[in-house]
Amino acid sequence: MRTIITTAAIAVASTATFAQPVLDITLAHTSGTTYEVRIRPDDSFDGVFSSLVFTLRWNAADGIGITQFDTPASDRIGIAPAAPVANEASYMYRTFSGFGFTPFTELGAAWIPGEEYALFTVTFSGTGNVELVNDDWTAANNGDFYVSLNGEPRAGNIYATEITTLVESTTPFTPPALSVWPNPTDGPVRLDLQGFSPGPIEVYVHDATGKLVLRTRVTGPQADIDVGALTSGTYQVSARQRSTTMRSPMVVH
Q1: pLDDT in tens, 43-70
Q2: Which residue in 37, 60, 73, 83 has a CA-CA distance of 20 to 30 Å to 248?
Q3: CA-to-CA distance for 58 and 162, rounded, in angstroms?
Q4: pLDDT at position 15 over 50
């Protein structure tokens, strides 16, 4: 399966030459019983994120399971379960894989060396010990960490792999939300950005064909952007911060 996808990705990337960094991967506890899978490149990259495989492991005795997962960076690579949950000895395993075919240059995206990028969030049904691992089971079941960029294997290390005990959060959670007003508009609009963390928020505006027509960086909870130079039509505004991406339609007249 990996050979087929790799060959296809090489064909997609054959029209351009890109830097191809080594990617490290980690599993970070964010809040409550939710984790993020993050990658960290050692060089810049704006090519094709061809494929990804990783496996999560947790103690069977904890009696927990995965209740929800999401790929907030779905415009870069889609991630889904590659196999059912497996019970091996005292552990439960779930392998995930993802494939991409579009160069980052067409998405208005690029990786910066040493930065962490969240690719996947996963929520468990309760507290327990969870890891992202390579072990004997993953080696025997095609579940070791694997990544290819422009069709070439570029997997690095699993870092910060010590077992972390999830702790229920007592901090009230405000779900992220994005609204745009006035809408329709013919000039500046105000973005209402609720639930984002302090710090920069990347804003992208795509037209009806998916073409990136505006990119800027703002901070919340409110920010103004000028879209008066855009032609009349329907657009999608996206606000992205690490693992969180919120979208809202916008009409320019």
Answers
A1: 889 889 999 999 999 999 999 999 988 8
A2: 37
A3: 12
A4: no
Cβ count within 10 A of residue 37: 24
Q: Which residues pair with 178 in a beta bridge?
A: 193
CA–CA–CA angle 134, 90, 81 (5° rounding): 50
Task: Specify the amino acid at residue 25.
Answer: I
**Cβ atoms of residues 39 and 116 within 8 Å:** yes
**Of 122, 120, 157, 146, nearest to 1 (Cα)?**
146
With beta carbons less than 8 A apart as the criterion, state whether 225 and 203 touch: yes
Global model pTM greater than 0.70: no
In contact, 42 and 100? CB cutoff 8 Å: no
Instruction: Report d(CA 50, CA 44) in Å as an integer.
Output: 16
**Nearest one of 109, 80, 101 to 206, comparing CA atoms:** 109
Instruction: Please write the tens of the pLDDT for every residue from 160-200.
Output: 643 344 434 344 545 678 889 898 898 899 999 887 877 88
